[in-house]
Specification:
This protein is extended. Strand 1 and strand 2 form a beta hairpin. It contains 5 helices and 2 strands, in the order H-H-H-H-E-E-H. The model has no long low-confidence stretch (mean pLDDT about 75).
């Protein structure tokens, strides 16, 4: 039995299949857990809140940074919410500023 069946044009169908492949081969995938790891259906259908109570998350902590010599410790930037117009505008402005620093134009 097929779990997923793509329908439509070839390009969208390929993108769909790649997305399914990435999802189904991830460690958290229900297909991987049920078929490859043999996890029982009852366990897969458990309420996530019950599982969270059994395994509470670790307290928030700063991930270890990496020394960058004279620039201090490295830390990842927080994720941006691209649905906010302000974030998209700041990004477009940063791209424009960067383009102006290029010594040569390629069109």
């Amino acid at each position: 039995m097929r779990v997923y069946a793509p329908i439509g044009e070839m390009l969208q169908g390929m993108a769909y299949l790649v997305r399914r492949l990435l999802e189904n081969t991830s460690n958290e995938s229900f297909l991987r857990q049920s078929f490859a790891q043999g996890v029982a259906i009852e366990e897969l259908l458990r309420n996530p809140l019950d599982i969270l109570k059994e395994h509470p998350p670790l307290p928030e902590s700063q991930p270890p940074g990496q020394d960058n010599w004279d620039q201090g410790r490295f830390g990842n930037e927080p994720l941006w919410d691209w649905t906010l117009a302000e974030h998209r505008e700041h990004f477009a402005e940063a791209l424009e500023r960067t383009r102006k620093t290029f010594p040569e134009r390629f069109s």
